[in-house]
Amino acid sequence: MRAAAPYALVDKVRDALAASHGATRVQLFLADYGFTVLTPYDPLPGKEQPLSLYNSPEGRAFGSQEPREQQVRHGDAVDHHLPVTVRGERTGILSVRLPGDRSTPEAVEELTHVADLLGHEIRVAERDTDAYQRARRVTRLTLAAEMQWQLLPGRASTAEEFSIGAHLEPAYAIHGDNFDWAADQEQLTIAVTNGMGEGIQASLLSNLAVNALRNARRSGLDIAGQAALADQAIYEQHRGASHVSTLLMRFDLATGRVEVVDAGSPQLWRQRGRTVERIPLEAQLPLGMFEESHYEAQDFHVLPGDRLLMVSDGVYEALSPDGELYGEKALARAIHSTSLLPAATVPRALLRALAEFRKADTPDDALALCLDWSGRPDAAPAAEPPLPAPDAGRTPTPES
């Protein structure tokens, strides 16, 4: 694969598996931007069509993240559907058809390894080809959405201490909502941003904010300093006419201590055991409203087993066709209903529930990010400092 042209990885895998395992069919399916279907990377004319992410053998393998077998009709061949995943980010499915006598547990283990290698090679190859990004589209992206997707770090990530998943809707026409994260040996930083306005204006504003935050983070500033630098960059460009709502968090991986700056509308929720509650934070000015705004970080702690969710105002302020507000109680119930799902799939599930409430296929510009905290096995427990109690506080679920 490393010797192949960036767009020819699947051809190279197909040839190699035919020679080594007698594979008669090798097909890569990629999850589309909306996480609704699996699209074939190199469909044969009139043959392969997009597959449901929920009602197909390939989709079930994608959801479970486990290899699945499917007996081919009228023969002894077996299709093996193998997740293609990179550091927790679910990319697609590699489907390999083997003769029945070659479909052994050892072969499945080897094919799983091939699928893992393919996922990593695709991430590298995307620097030099548009082929994989084109294959993930079932319709055209707006220019604003194109800019936003290119800005993202991915849609999921896993490490020893945490698992993250995030999703944006409407996937093919997002405007100003965005998320970003970065981890090193000591810290994890997460930013959820929402640029005001619509279309290209909102996307450009979010691009400026995210890159300003990255520049500050990579310069070694704490999160209060990161917020201040991004605030100055946005104000200098727009002189207060535009602003960016931001929720900025930094986790100490060794202790679970969290520093947070609440600069706008994104909300932070926590599920601990059977209790779902909104974490009360002191609201500060959105980035870019005034010249040289001052920001202060607050502290709290996460414990192993905690789940944190960050949502934009497009979620909790959504309206039904009858004008009913989605609100915090409905959001708390939706969070509780996704308790058993892994972090990578929770955001999409929350936004699907929101779409059902709105009686629409996709919500208006909405973002959800989920973080499951595992912590380090040797982490010492720490006392959690109290947070100020603003007007909006805990919203209990019926089960809590």
Structural account:
By secondary structure, this protein is α+β, with helices and mostly antiparallel strands. It is 30% helix and 26% strand. The protein has ten helices and 17 strands. The protein has helices at residues 9-21, 57-64, 105-125, 131-135, 143-151, 199-218, 223-238, 313-316, 327-337, 346-358; strands at 25-31, 37-40, 51-52, 68-71, 78-86, 89-98, 156-158, 162-169, 177-183, 187-195, 244-252, 257-263, 267-272, 275-278, 298-301, 307-311, 366-373. Strands 3-2-1-6-5-4 form a six-stranded antiparallel beta sheet, sandwiched between helices. A six-stranded antiparallel beta sheet has the order 7-8-17-16-13-14. The protein has a five-stranded antiparallel beta sheet with strand order 9-10-11-12-15. A hairpin with a 3-residue loop joins strand 9 (177-183) and strand 10. Helix 1 packs antiparallel against helix 3 (105-125) and helix 5 packs parallel to helix 6 (199-218). It starts with 8 loop residues before the first helix and ends in a 27-residue tail after the last strand. Residues 391-400 have low confidence and may be disordered. InterPro entries: Bact_Sigma-Reg, PPM-type-like_dom_sf, PPM-type_phosphatase-like_dom. Pfam families: SpoIIE. Residues 159-373 form the PPM-type phosphatase domain. This is Phosphatase. Residues 378-400 are annotated as: Disordered.
- Beta content comes to 25-35%
Query: Which radius of gyration do the C-alpha atoms yield?
Result: 22 Å
Q: pLDDT below 50 for ≥5 consecutive residues: which ranges?
A: 391-400
Largest sheet: 6 strands, antiparallel
**Distance from first to last alpha carbon:** 51 Å
What general outline do the C-alpha atoms trace? Answer: globular
Helix/sheet category: alpha+beta
Total helical segments: 10
Q: How much helix, percentage-wise, in residues? A: 25-40%
Q: What oligomeric state do these chains adopt?
A: single chain
Q: Provide the succession of SSEs.
A: HEEEHEEEHHHEEEEHHEEEEEEHHHE
Average pLDDT number: 91
Number of distinct beta strands: 17
Strand order of the largest sheet: 3-2-1-6-5-4
